[in-house]
Amino acid sequence: NPDPKSHAVAWDIEDAVKRYVQPVLDKLSLVANFSVDSQILYYAVLGVTPRFDKESSSFLLSAHSLPHVINPVEARLGSSAASLYPVLNFLLYVPERSHSPLYIQDKDGAPVSTNAFHSPRWGGIMVYNVEAPASPQASLPLHVDVDMVRVMEVFLAQLRLLFGLSQEEVPPEFLLESPGNEGLADWELDRLLWAHTVENIATVSTTLTSLAQLLDKIGNIVIKDDVASEVYRAVASAQSAMAELATGHLQSAFQASKEAVTSSERAFFDPSLLHLLYFPDDQ
Amino acid sequence: MAVQRRREPHGAVGQCPAVAAACLPLGRPRLSAGGSSVLPDGSEPGDRRCPPERKRRGVRESRPRREEPRRGRHSPRGIPTRGKAVRGTNGAQAARELRGGSARNGRRSGAGAAAAGAGTAGSRRHRGAPGSGAAARSRPAAPRSPEEAAPGPPLPSPPRAGASEAGPGPRLRVSTATPEAAAIGREAGSGRALGAAGPARARRDALQDALREELLLSPLPDGDVAATFQFRTRWDADLQRGAVSHYRLFPKALGRLAAALGVRELHLALTQGFWRTRAWGQPPLQAPAGAELWVWFQPTVTDVDKAWKELSNILSGIFCASLNFIDSTNTVTPTASFKPLGLANGTDHRLLRYAVLPREVVCTENLTPWKKLLPCGSKAGLAVLLKAERLFHSSYHSQAVHIRPICRDASCLAVSWELRQTLTVVFDTFSSGQGKKDWSLFKMFSRTLTDACPLALQSKVYVDISPKNKEKELLEVTPAPTSVHEAIVQGDKRTYAVYDLLSPSLFNTSRSLNVQLKWKRPQDSSELPTPVLHAQRYVSGYGLQAGEISTLIYNTHPYRAFPVLLLETVPWYLRLYVHTLTIITKGKENKPSYIHYQPAQDRRRPHLLEMLIQLPASSVTKITIQFERALLKWTEYTPDPNHGFYVSSSVLSALVPSVIAMKDVDMEQSPLFTSLFPSSDGSSYFVRLYTEPLLVNLPTPDFSMPYNVICLTCTVVAVCYGSFYNLLTRTFHVEEPNRGGLAKRLANVIRRFRGVPPL
């Protein structure tokens, strides 16, 4: 909300999270643990000044300038302060009065219908335009109640996208299960588990391979016993994940692959590897 | 110089007989020992995270290869903690880059190199950084306290007033806010009455968080001007409970931090300069030079030390300060000096941690993140005045963050959280303004106020116009203030001109508010009113072996004696001799009624000395203690060892009896600068003073000596060997003297004629 002087924006985020977001996250809780926070930032600025379009008497934000929008906001989010886990940010931007209405243009110059965009691994931003008051004499700040249904539709769609659940072209003879209230069908969850398991196993193998390469290249790294045991555990978990995957037990496969990833990461990033790494050879 | 020292093969040090005595105890260099910790300093892997001497560029630049990669991988946050200057400006940029994000793939290569460094990790990063950038993933053992802050703190019973638990002492501080509680109940009504009551304001009350901003301008006795900003955010929510939290005005970074680590109270002050209590009077809120952090943890926190470590690391990331240097060697757990300022049931001092980094330099890069925590940023309200280039062009600058729980309402059944951001700055307008004591907002800040922060419930400017020397109306302020507020602050009756930025009449005539103060006639340089309590501290003694720390505490109160709590934290390399502790008042020995002493352990913890001393009326108390300077290992010296080593300020806490009886004031109504410390009753007020930090010279080996030896040896070798070689290899032959040319012979002929000796 860059302009608290003219818009007093209220959003019923608690209720919206409870009603729309939580069911999805509950369903996804197998994959990861989620916690939801929200905050309101005032005087947040877009990194770019939108272009005024005379025909529609509105402001336009073109697709190639979108990456610059994130930077100034990011600095104030403070989401990385207390947690080290990746954060997905969903931002609702209410343009300031002098810049509204604001529309996002895609590459071809057509306005985006949802007026939102997302950035992989970061989150999404939606621009929420406030209708100009009927009479210009209306007292400022203008009170705005955000229509959370509209916002949450977009955010949930973005969340799905960010998790890699895109709408696939399904052969017409397939019967699709309706996503239900959670906005996430079971088969989609299964697919997500599959994808993540495979990805995790791939991650483990590359991590271990690069560790091995590193050891080949720099001889004086000491591998302690606990590091070694982490490596063994990673390999064992990865193998069990593959076996489970072969038999079709998605959840246990996923758990095993998660363990494999954590232990391989721990092995790779063990601080004891570093101790002698920067020790100059000539001393 | 530092380069020389660090890179020296340590054999060279042993060679020199001159410093052998000094060098021997310094032992093996830390480098050669590699992984296993040589030093008995309990070096846990944790202290690897914060590379030593991050701020000192001398060392850093000399060995970039060793430092950078470690910093990148182990920095507690995603951002590789760079040197100070770099971070302030483009820290955000760096963070952005590290995050990578496939949107900006192109940029990641540079950031990746910074984070991985040294080409070692480069080989492994082939797999396309699936996480949010290299550094974000690369933290070892991601620490995160569980969100479910288990059963939550028990509801505060109606706060017990009084009786600090430091047994023998008299009651030193009343650790809670009963008057405040009574006041809060009235707030809803008062908020509306305050000004410009509109639908928006009424609704804001319902939202249960409120921001009040305030600026206090007070001319100091010697002509300087002190400006104190206070921003108070009150949030009626329990941080410790509830997994989903929705932040509005309260900064999310701090809220998450407090919730995750079980912080009950947090007080962080970053200060540049020293508040001269004697000349400037009692400060509204003093802080020791450097960085000060003290934290009370929730009783649910099991491993306080770990939480403390984590907290200081995260805070150093948030505020771009080197708080990550806080470790066990400068952390103490005072037993009596620091009480919770907010709501607390039970003061178990094991949950308290206190640390001061006197060496910390505060500059704009600490101010910017501080400003970001304000809801209005620096875009509106009083914070527009916070312009770094003016703020740091001053003789004292102190910024602080205080988080504490307070009672939500009169019944005190629920907890609200209060965040106070204060910033005190002293402008030396007197010396820089051609000896005139007049000032204006524009002159000091090079800005004027244009509006209040639209989110603030209250936004006021107070100007201290209290008449001095019983003479009335020595000074005048323009424009005319909205109202005049009288208060008794720190035992002194003060008059304040108040400008309410929320009242629409203020900006009607002119677009901006530029408070000006003019002295009607030049103020005669009368005697400065000395504050009731002030102190000074110095090191005495000669030589580099022993010394003495002396503290002088002045009680200038004409007829009342009062006790004062003195807290000394002395680093381990000054070995205090407690048997030499003498406390002398008016020529007689003064026995402290409470002493808590915790001896230091080398490289593990500092000395902690707490004493409760009774100060008789109008007296000077001298406290001396002798110490011996320890020899450090050669890697423990700072890059500029001859600068000396800092000893942090000692802390004086006292309930100073007031000369004037104080009313029981309404905390919520009264200006913010009066209400941080709870006042107990009408007859006394709480004061916390900090003495000067000390700078002690330690015996320092001549670090340039090996370099000199090498230079000298090389010179000798070059000269001797060179000339000898010359002698051996050069062929000599006698050169026939030349008879000279035609011109010379001609000249000689002429000279012979003239009777002059020939050429």
From TrEMBL, chain A:
Secretion signal span: none
Cell location: Endoplasmic reticulum membrane
Bilayer disposition of the protein: Multi-pass membrane protein
InterPro entries, sorted: PtdIno-glycan_biosynth_class_S (IPR019540)
Keywords: Endoplasmic reticulum, Glycoprotein, GPI-anchor biosynthesis, Membrane, Transmembrane, Transmembrane helix
GO biological process, one term: GPI anchor biosynthetic process
Pfam families according to UniProt: PIG-S
Pathways per UniProt: Glycolipid biosynthesis; glycosylphosphatidylinositol-anchor biosynthesis
Cellular compartments per GO CC: GPI-anchor transamidase complex
Family note: Belongs to the PIGS family.
Protein name: GPI transamidase component PIG-S
Organism name: Colius striatus
